[in-house]
Amino acid sequence: GGCESDSECDDNDSCTNDICKSGKCFYDYRPCSECGKKTFKLEIVNDQYPDDVTWDVKKSNQIILSGNSGSVPYSTYTKTACLANGNYVFTTIPYFVEPKNGMKLGTLLR
Asked: What global pTM score does this model have?
């Protein structure tokens, strides 16, 4: 399905301008400071196995963002997003390590 108006493209993100153009939705990202949020920027420098890493950001055990490190070996994967003030947990899961007891690497973001 396509769209007929901008309101049909509403993604419930105050940091995007939601635009319906030629029956397709487009999202124009505004600076985080314009929508009362902070900028989160993740950079992962890949080795020869970029598919080996996944990550997520959680707030109150709810996944807010998630992804992998892209698919291009020896490149830098970058993800930028706007997050509301609060505490978040960033977790990265390396596939190349056999997880033991749900092993994850995590960091508390504030």
From this structure: 0.69
